[in-house]
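WARN no homologs supplied; continuing
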Amino acid sequence: MASPSDPLLHERTSPRSLRQRPIYLPEEEGQPLIARWRRAARSFLSSRRGHYLVLLLVSVDVACTFADFLIELRVCELTKHGSHVAVGWGVTQEVLAIVGLVFSCLFMLELMVTVFSFGKGYFSSKFHVFDALVIIVAFGVDVALHGIEEELGSLIVVLRLWRVFKIIEELESANEDTLEEYEHEIERLRQENTYLRQRLNVSLDNADPMD
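OK structure emitted
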């Protein structure tokens, strides 16, 4: 009979524990506060929850961009035919412009936190380099041209639509996290199965002389 100290029979790896991503910074006693902040931020950004949060922000921003684009087409169509343009269309566009500026600030903050957490190694990927450039340029355009030159609004739209590719990248990262969790769980079950077989064989061998 297995004793309570048998680790593979009594220790269960919960799904929640499998979701924790590895923390790459060395964990030492009495480490500085900034180092602990970096560890916490890096752990969150590498987690599934962090990927899904960024995915949600990007999705909402892209949806607002498409909504603003469709409203602009509608306003242009009404203006072309000499029809009256309701005040609500303009108010909606102003609200969406403010929302877009807020999202640009959030993505800029996310970029700074990411660079602070991962360091220069974050830019080892060309995708991350280009994505950082898009975030910086979009933020600059949003701040500098907000309410000044509507002719350059298409540039903002193009820059924001690049974030569609970031949605794909975040989905791939989330899928990789899920696959890694399954691999860890399969390996744990394989080891437990091997352990149980060994104990069963030992029990059968001990029972043979009694027969």
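The radius of gyration is 27 Å.
OK
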